[in-house]
Specification:
By secondary structure, the protein is an alpha/beta fold. It is built from 8 helices and 7 strands; from the N terminus they run βαβααβαβαβαβααβ. A 7-stranded parallel sheet has the order 3-2-1-4-5-6-7, sandwiched between helices. It is globular, with a radius of gyration of 17 Å. The termini are far apart.
Length: 258
């Protein structure tokens, strides 16, 4: 029997087929989980890489036999996390796994161009929404055992990101809060954080990937499934003794950072 049979997972930021969220969803469906996929197409459509559409991602997974539902939500709205968790209960009657994969990212720019509005919005989506999702997850789980939470950061502790300061600082906060959240949810759920390192999800130009290739110990950028494999293990039954950890699944990329 697949290891996640009977389990229900909420995965945020899963509206792009080339993204990490969709790869995580594919792995968890293959392991038997039922899924509520979250996305906000309006954000993706405003980015250079565009949007596939949340329903399109879900249809691909359902075609393979997975039980998949969708819920669109703007995570800058403080009410959205409770609504998403409630949607999982409405659709499936339970929620066992939370994967906070969503991220707000904006075009690169120097510190001189950073605005208060962008700082606030980055923290609202990347930090506040994640913390509120964990809070709502814990509330509906109560003392049910074997809950799983995985947050996604971006390796800010391994080197500077001077052109992505609002994004970098708001994502770094997730790694910082992981031990405290793990202690708060123990012994009923584990909480871990994954840094996938540079990952080819369609946002980077071929020139950027080629230019940075010599810095990669394995000679390549990560693929979405590289991080998804680790996350599938972390939410499975064999990872029940792993909590409060920030884990890099980056092919050793951090080893080469200054």
């Amino acid at each position: 029997m697949p290891p996640l049979t009977g389990r229900v997972a909420l995965i945020t930021g899963a509206s792009r087929k080339a993204g990490i969220g969709a790869a995580i969803a594919g792995r968890l469906v293959a392991d038997g989980a039922s899924l509520l996929l979250h996305g906000w197409d309006a954000h993706d459509e405003a980015q250079p890489w565009g949007a596939d559409g949340l329903r399109s991602v879900a249809m691909d997974l359902a075609t393979g036999g997975g039980r998949v539902a969708t819920a669109a939500a703007d995570l800058s709205d403080p009410a959205a996390p409770r609504t998403l968790v409630g949607s999982a209960l409405d659709q499936f009657g339970r929620l066992d796994i939370l994967v906070a994969n969503h991220a707000r990212s904006v075009p690169w720019g120097p510190l001189s161009e950073v605005t208060a509005a962008e700082i606030d919005l980055s923290y609202a989506v990347n930090t506040r929404a994640t913390l509120l999702l964990v809070k709502e997850f814990a509330a509906v789980r109560g003392e049910a055992p074997d809950g799983r939470v995985v947050l996604l950061t971006s390796g800010q502790g391994q080197g500077p990101m001077p052109l992505e300061i609002p994004y970098a600082s708001s994502k770094a906060a997730l790694a910082g809060m992981t031990p405290s959240l793990a202690a708060a949810l123990a012994p009923y759920a584990t909480v871990n954080c994954v840094n996938p390192g540079p990952t080819d999800t369609g946002w980077a130009s071929a020139d950027l990937i080629e230019e940075s290739r010599p810095k990669a110990p394995f000679g390549r950028w990560g693929q979405p499934d590289d991080a998804a494999k680790l996350i599938a293990w972390l939410v499975g039954p064999e990872a029940g003794w792993v909590t409060g950890q920030v884990i890099s699944s980056d092919g050793g990329w951090g080893l080469t950072r200054p």
